[in-house]
Write a structure and sequence with these properties.
- The chain is of the alpha/beta class and 139 residues long.
- The chain is built from four helices and seven strands; from the N terminus they run E-H-E-E-E-E-H-E-H-E-H.
- It has one domain: 3-Layer(aba) Sandwich (Udp-n-acetylmuramoylalanyl-d-glutamate--2,6- Diaminopimelate Ligase, Chain: A, domain 1), CATH 3.40.1390.20.
- Strand 5, helix 2 and strand 6 form a beta-alpha-beta unit.
- The strands form two sheets. It has a five-stranded mixed β-sheet with strand order 2-7-6-5-4, with helices on both faces. Strands 1-3 form a two-stranded antiparallel sheet.
């Protein structure tokens, strides 16, 4: 049960999300959304996650965001979504965009005002519907 990053970006309601890097890998499969609230990713992901970084519960400076890119790429995540706005992460540093592009890691910018509950609901619902469609084809 998975969707591609491109399919997720095409979901109604997610039009405000902007691709910033990694267009060459939009066909990566997303198993599930994961909201990262720890310093690193390595011990928390299994591969195939679309990882969301809010900056709410852990400070995200440029060095930490670069670490997340390194660890995410090494762990096989499908992509990285960084929420930006006035409160926590104001902008994605150019170095983070450049490293994602170098690795081919999909990087998406999400406005902080686009609520995570809406985004994860839309993605989770689409993943479940995809799984049900696949099962019904096999019945």
């Amino acid at each position: 049960m998975s969707l591609t990053v491109a399919e997720i970006l095409g979901l109604a309601g997610l039009e405000e999300m902007t691709l910033r890097a990694g267009a060459c890998n939009l066909q990566r499969n997303v198993r599930w959304p994961y909201v990262a609230e720890n310093e690193g990713l390595r011990q928390w992901v299994m591969g195939g996650e679309l990882v969301f970084v809010t900056g709410i519960n852990h400070p995200r400076d440029e060095a930490n965001l670069l670490r997340l890119v390194h660890e995410g790429d090494a762990s096989g995540i499908a992509g990285l979504v960084i929420l930006t706005g006035d409160a926590f992460i104001q902008r994605i540093p150019d170095s983070v965009i450049a490293l994602c592009e170098e690795y081919g890691l999909v990087l998406i910018e999400q406005p902080y005002l686009l609520k995570m509950v809406i985004v994860t609901h839309l993605i989770g619902t689409a993943l479940v519907q995809m799984g049900q469609t696949k099962r019904s084809r096999h019945d």
